[in-house]
Amino acid sequence: MRKLGAENKTARYAMLIDLDRCNGCGACMVACAVENNVPPPQPSATPRTGLNWLRVFRLNTGGRDAFIPVMCMQCGDETPCQSVCPQKAVEFDPATGIVGQIPERCLGCRYCMAACPYQARVFNWWDPQWPAGMEQALNPRVSARQRGTVEKCNFCHGRWQAALEKAAQDGESGPVRYTPACAEACPAQAIRFGDLNDEEFAAECRDSGAFRLLESLGTGPKVFYRTSRAEVREATRGFGEVKRG
Amino acid sequence: MIRTGILFLAGFSVALSAGWWSVPRLLYRTEPQPAQFSHIAHTGEKGGMSCEDCHSFRADGTFAGIPKLETCAACHSAPMGETQAEKDFIARFVEPGVEPEWKVYSRQPDNAWFPHSAHVLRGKVACEKCHGEIGKSDRLPVYRVHRFTGYPEDVMGKRAGPLGLKRAGGMRMDDCVACHRQNRIEHSCLDCHK
User: Fold this and answer.
1) Residue B186 sits in which domain range?
2) What is the DSSP letter of A25?
3) What is the domain-level CATH number for residue A99?
């Protein structure tokens, strides 16, 4: 039973990414960092210690390269990160299907990072610092995280909150519609965001051409991919072996 | 032996009372508001205004909070009453066009998100439920801020309800959670945190 934001109705937000459209430009990564107040990397940061909620990997298929954006998959079944967190700092919200990370509770043990099959979680090795003047451009909808906490993509939860505020103002009920920053920024419109409770969108995600990464683990990820190239799909099967960076 | 016991109890109670009295005073620092303001002069029979007349919503559903100078100046470009406070306000802020920097009693921490539209417009929660009967006060309460966190007392410490008026539900996280549980509204952390 849930009243806030949705009159007893829930959403299951999901993403459908068309790999044929993605050209690896990285606009989604930049938009994500700007939207979510992810600070620029420290000079000593490495690809392993830097902060990225969303990474675009290059898939070497033998022929023409393909690119695959990977973020938190918002696993809905037996959410691996949630089940291992000793602090209850990870929370699956059944009303939105979003896996929330609560930095105030996180003690920085990074067990969730080890548990995540997608390596979608990152650790704050440093307190966030912005070049002089850039702090003026921070997004007030998102709180910055401190050193010693884990963070990850939350499907632009600040935008969900903004949409909820607007819906309440307009007297609308039911799950709200919004667009995360990556989907908005993608010039090729490769990233689509929707609600799996919306039949039309769900049907597209169920499409025979659509697949999910490491689906066989049974974690119920909610980021779907689609491609017409068999070799690209084949290349994604080895995702777990992809090295970071 | 009895004498020692009495002395100990007397000393203990003195120390305890002193601590009880002084610690909250040491923990909070008082800051002045830029001007004096009477809510009742505006909301009473003479003014006849409602909360929403000044504390309005923006078109995108966000809450504007304390009104800007232009809202005040719309009526008070020239004195409407006889009070010295009004004359001072016009001389110091309206005429030179200086925005008064009001201290916000209910300023929440950076990681908290409170959608007024969801509570007031959809949930029909009365303003007084959280803010107390501030609309009936004739002067601003003392603004006290926590020395360590910089957050106001209403959010950090005791429940809201200044001036001896009817106490409010409060604006601490405990108060939010208590009300949500009472109304059986499920909540996840990210409902209110950002």
Assistant:
1) 104-194
2) -
3) 3.30.70.20
* Chain B: closest CA distance from residue A240 (Å): 29
Asked if B113 and A161 come within 8 Å (Cβ–Cβ), the reply is yes
Which chain A residues are within 8 Å of B60, Cβ to Cβ?
Answer: 162, 165-166, 169
Question: Does any domain span residue B116?
Answer: yes
pLDDT at B164: 44
Parts of chain B with a pLDDT under 70: 156-169, 186
Percentage of residues in chain A with pLDDT exceeding 70? 94
pLDDT tens-digit readout, B32-82: 999 999 999 999 888 889 999 999 999 898 999 999 999 999 999 888 888
The continuous run of DSSP H or E covering A223 comes out as strand A223-226
Q: Which of A165, A166, A178 to mutate to test the interface with B (most CBs of B within 10 A)?
A: A165
Residue B183 within any structural domain of the chain: yes
B146 token code pair: 């926590």
Range(s) of the domain holding residue A200: 13-241
Does B188 contact A168 at a Cβ distance shorter than 8 Å? no
Structural domain contains residue A2? no
CB B105 within 8 A of CB B154: yes
The answer to whether A95 contacts B186, with C-beta atoms less than 8 Å apart, is yes
Query: Does any domain span residue B98?
Result: no
Tokens of B73: 């100046």
Asked if A169 lies within 8 A of B57 by C-beta distance, the reply is: yes
Q: What is the ipTM of this complex?
A: 0.82
pLDDT digits (tens, 9 = 90+) for A93-124: 988 999 999 999 999 999 999 999 999 999 99
* A75 part of a folded domain: yes
- Residue in the structure block whose two tokens are 């979680």: A121
Specify the pTM. 0.87
Q: Is residue B165 part of a domain?
A: yes
Backbone angles phi, psi at B171, to 5 degrees: -130, 25
Distance CA A95, CA A107 (A): 26
Give the span between the Cα atoms of A96 and B106, in whole angstroms.
29
Q: How many structural domains are present in chain A?
A: 1
Choose the weakest-confidence range: A12-16, A22-26, A148-152, B173-177.
Answer: B173-177
pLDDT of A1 > 60? The answer is no
Q: Per the structure block, which two tokens stand in for A182?
A: 């990556």
Total domains in chain B come to 1
Nearest-Cα residue of chain A relative to residue B112: A143
